[in-house]
Every structure is written in structure tokens, then in C-alpha cells.
Amino acid sequence: METRKVQVTGGSTYTVSLPKTWATDNGVSAGSIVEFYPEDDSLLLTPKGEERRTEGTLDITNLEGRELMRAVMTMYVSGFDIINLETARVTASQRRAIREAAQRLVGLEVIGETSEHIILQDLLDSSELSIINAITRMRLVALSMLNDAITALVENDDDLAQDVIERDDDVDRLWYMTSRVFRSVLRDPSTATEVGLGRESCFDYHSSARQLERIADHATKIAEHALELEEIPGEAADGLQKLLVEASDITETAMDALLEDDSERATQLANEARERVDEIDAQAREVDKLIRELDPQQAQLLGLVVDSLGRSADYGGNVAETALQKAAPKP
């Protein structure tokens, strides 16, 4: 760490010198323009550069299927605007995996391809993306998935269960977009200005988005169990529906707290959600008692459903914890 003494020039202008090593490493010299980004009591400085898109290249020779898809998604989340995928010869299966990966990511499109290269480009910029809109949409989709998964289980509706499983891609798409914006904000202060949020707020929303993505995953698991199960006894069905209502309400209340601008109101809602997480455990144990009396295979799968509902409530509680931290006074 280096320190500099602030001086006054011209009677009203504050000036401070830049460390020479930093200036040299970043191409700053006499006449260069730098940008300032205020963030609470800090002031971030960065050299002003030309508008350019970050480009990355990946050798996909030994990558296939899901591994190749994960590689594309990782480069997208890492912030590359243009992704060059190259190999001696792109196979048909590789093309399918790449296109499937692109379809799961917001804004990413194939803009060029040859027998040796495929070029992907993010057609959106950060200023067009809203983390708040993304998590609001994730909240709606994830909780509707959870509700429909239990409905499919109770009503033995395989079509609805399959629909829940397919909707998981919508939540994943928003999760990857949120992760991309979050990492960009950490890396580049200008992105924080473009999205209109500070880095702490982006962290709060990103961590909450992760909890919503996990709720959607558990809704998918419940839907998969629904496809395996036939009709379940009415008493067990009633117990599961009560657990669903409680888990959904906890998450709804926690999300309301997270998005609340009034700190006092946000704290009240977050504490309410946290207290209800403890109460749902006793409720889950009661449903478990009912399930143990059923056929062993049926009891095992329904036990997993109870576990998924309990975990979903816990994830809602995690969002409430984040809301409490967001609403707390800043040091």
C-alpha cells in the first residue's frame, strides 16, 4: 500500500499524484484520461480505455457433451463477450452441445462457424441486464415450480410433473446471467455504474439468486419423484401441501425483505421469515410420522419430498439472513 498527500492547486482544486509503477503498468502517462467511480466513502480510479469486447479462445478438441457445455457456460459467466471455440475439426455432436449451451444462456448466440471454429457472442451489454429483474423472475418461476411439483404429486399428473422439470432451464438461464453480471461488477467498476448497483448489493442479490436456483432444483426432484409414484393417501397429501404453503410463504416473505427499501420494514420481514424456518421442522417431523406407515418404497420417495420442502424453507431462511445483512447499518 502507498499513501499520497492531498494538495490544493488554484485555491479550490484538490490534487493527488498517482504511483508511477501503477501508472506505467496501466499505460497512464501525461495527457491520459482516467475515470472515477464513487462508491460510498471510496473513490475507484481506472484508466479510460476504448470500448471493446473481451474475447477468449478455448481448444475443444477433447471436450464433448456436458463437459463442453459446462466449458461454454463457464466462459460466459467469466465475462467473455466473444468466445472462440476451435479444434482440428468440429464434430456434429460438439456443434449440438455448443448450440444447446448457447440456448441456455441469456444473450449468447452463434455468430460464425467453420469446420474448425465456432464463434459465440453475447449480444447484450451490462446496461441492458437487471439483476433485480432477474431474481424477481427467478422467484416467480422457482416458487411456481415448487407449487406445481406438489400438485403433480398429489394429483398424479405426469404432464404437469414433466412441465416442472422443463422449466428448470428457465431458472438456470437467469442464474447464469446473474452470475455473469456479478462477476463483471467485481472486475470492472464501470459495470457497477451501468447496472446502477453497488458491489455489496450485487453480492446480496447474487447470493439470494443462488438460493432460488436451489429451490428450483428441489422442485425438479419432487417432480421426478412424482413420475415414479402413483396415488398417495389423502392424509399424507394434506401434510405435504401444508409444508408447501409454509416453505413458499417463508421464501416469499424473505424475498419481500430483500427487495424492501425501508430498513426497518425489511428487518421485520426477514426476522419473521427466520422464525418460521424453525417452526417448519416440527411440521416436517409430523408428516414423516404419517409417511412411515406407508409402503416402504412409497415412504422412501415421499420422505425425499419432505426433505426437499424442508430444504426449500431453509433456502428461504438464507435469503432472509441476506436481507438482514443488507438492511443492517453500514460500518
Secondary structure elements and pairings:
Blueprint: E1 7-9, E2 13-15, H1 20-25, E3 34-39, E4 42-47, E5 55-59, H2 65-78, E6 82-86, H3 92-103, E7 108-113, E8 117-122, H4 131-155, H5 158-187, H6 189-195, H7 199-228, H8 234-259, H9 263-292, H10 296-327
Parallel strand pairs: 5-6
Antiparallel strand pairs: 1-2, 3-4, 6-8, 7-8
Helix pairs in contact: 2-3, 2-5, 4-5, 4-7, 4-8, 5-6, 5-7, 7-10, 8-9, 8-10, 9-10
Give a written overview of the molecule.
- There is one protein chain.
- The chain folds into 3 domains: 19-49, no CATH class; 55-124, Alba-like domain (Translation Initiation Factor IF3), CATH 3.30.110; 129-327, Phosphate transport system protein phou homolog 2, domain 2 (Methane Monooxygenase Hydroxylase, Chain G, domain 1).
- It is built from 10 helices and 8 strands.
- It has helices at residues 20-25, 65-78, 92-103, 131-155, 158-187, 189-195, 199-228, 234-259, 263-292, 296-327; strands at 7-9, 13-15, 34-39, 42-47, 55-59, 82-86, 108-113, 117-122.
- Strands 5-6-8-7 form a 4-stranded mixed beta sheet, covered by helices on one side. It has a two-stranded antiparallel ribbon with strand order 1-2. Strands 3-4 form a two-stranded antiparallel sheet.
- Strand 5, helix 2 (65-78) and strand 6 (82-86) form a beta-alpha-beta unit.
How much of the sequence is in beta strands? 5-15%
Q: Write down the oligomeric state.
A: single chain
Count of helical segments? 10
Domain count, please report it.
3
Computed over alpha carbons, the radius of gyration is 25 Å
Tell the overall outline. flat
The biggest sheet, with number of strands, parallel, antiparallel or mixed sense and barrel status, is: 4 strands, mixed
Overall average residue pLDDT: 88
Major beta sheet, strand line-up: 5-6-8-7
- Find the count of extended strands (DSSP E, 2+ residues): 8
Question: Helix share of residues?
Answer: 55-70%
Full CATH superfamily name of the largest domain: Phosphate transport system protein phou homolog 2, domain 2
Between the first and last Cα atoms, what is the distance in angstroms? 22 Å
Compressed to H and E, one letter per element, the order equals EEHEEEHEHEEHHHHHHH
The level 1 CATH classification of the largest domain is Mainly Alpha
Structural class: alpha+beta
Uncertain stretches = none
- Please identify, by name, the CATH architecture of the largest domain: Up-down Bundle
CATH topology of the largest domain: Methane Monooxygenase Hydroxylase, Chain G, domain 1
Organism: Halomarina halobia
Domain SpoVT-AbrB: 8-53
Coiled coil: 263-290
Protein name: PhoU domain-containing protein
